[in-house]
Amino acid sequence: MSSSLSFRSFPLGTKIWQAVEEAGYTQPTPIQAAAIPLILEGRDLIGIAQTGTGKTAAFTLPILAKLCPEGNIPARSGTRALILAPTRELAAQIEENVRTYGKHLPVRMATVYGGVRERPQVAALRSGVDLVVACPGRLLDLLEQQHGNLARLEFLVFDEADRMLDMGFMPSIQKIMKWVARKRQTLLFSATCSREIETLAQEFLCAPELVQIGRRANPAEAVTQSVYEVARERKAELLCHLLQGAALQSVLVFSRTKHGADRIGRTLERAGIRTATMHADRSQGQRTRALEDFKAGAVRVLVATDIAARGIDVDGISHVINFDFPATSDDYVHRIGRTGRAQATGDAISFVTREEFGALRALERFLGRTIERKQIEGFELGEASRGASSEERVKRPAFSPGHPTGRSRPAGGSRWGRQRNEGRGSGRREPRSFRSA
């Protein structure tokens, strides 16, 4: 990206330039610099870039510019833009970005996802909004109830497409496509590019341009990665010990299970560390409050399952800690991508038990590098404490951790589950090989 390139280099319009500058941005990131001109030209596009590189603005800015030429919107004729996202949190974050960049434009929008009442979403769709941000499950439910009109859709975006496939949304996506206009501009954004992503692109995109920033599935280079080998029963105690460090200002801790996340949260609260938890059994209101408290620094630690591994754009996270080693290499990439975002730096720490050494070696082969091993005296493998449980050992800590403010970032997800394409396609052209931009 040229140092002289600014958002005013793109024909986005005065009102969007103003909103972007009011948000504190002047120069586009590499994915934005590569994708925005192609989208403005009307090309279908596949954008592959690491998390935290500005993919959301890469598609929201040109779509807003095309929805509102010269800052005005044409006569309303149903929904013109649809952005699909895998999780409620990501959908809410996209909505926030659209409102930020479109604050001076007459764009009407609705956000559609589960876990909240349908009635306001139905009313918004019936009112003829210009842009809809939606999770596939709830959107399909409403479309099947004859709410909403996508027959004149001009722009379709698959955001975090790899996670949508991970979460088994392919059948729902294929059904949604029955309501979508066949002549449209389609954009697909993802942190990784797998065979499944290429299949999705070939089915729904038309001769797409491929914009790829960095190596596929490569964790952000700004993230320092390390591993602690520790006995399973000492993990909670080691976590509390590490959190004594002042550098761990805003920490996202990943648990493999919902019950494990709750257990870790209780343990940290007993140790005097302000903590929130976030997983699928929490209500939408609870998840929203946990995220807001984490963003604002009201809590120092957010404990989450992989539902938080994608799509939450929160600045300033200092550390990601894999309390439970991730199930797949892709999950590892997306987890640690919550820190070291954009131009920031961050640290990713993983706890590894003896039973997980094989998974660690497989991850290192995937990354093409060795992850640094660290040890803390007293926590080495073979040094498991006798007697009290981990929760009991940290109930009355000898330290009084501070409560530094900080902000952090979660995102959504689950284990990789390959889905077989089912149902009819979109009626687009025959599959084509991708052209590199």
Brief overview:
The chain is α/β, with parallel strands linked by helices. The protein is 33% helix and 15% strand.
CATH superfamily of the largest domain: P-loop containing nucleotide triphosphate hydrolases
- Tell me about the biggest sheet? 8 strands, parallel
> SS-based structural class?
alpha/beta
CATH class of the largest domain: Alpha Beta
Helix share bin: 25-40%
The third-level CATH topology of the largest domain is: Rossmann fold
* Alpha-carbon Rg, integer: 22 Å
Overall 3D form: globular
Structurally, the number of domains stands at 2
| Low-confidence blocks of residues | 384-437
The CA-CA distance between the termini, in Å, is 14 Å
| β-sheet strand percentage | 15-25%
Strand order of the largest sheet: 3-4-2-5-6-1-7-15
Assembly level: single chain
* Integer average pLDDT: 82
Order of helices and strands: HHEHEHEHEHEHHEHEEHEHEHEEHEHEHE
- Please give the number of β-strands: 15
Helical region count?
Answer: 15
Q: Give the name of the CATH architecture of the largest domain.
A: 3-Layer(aba) Sandwich
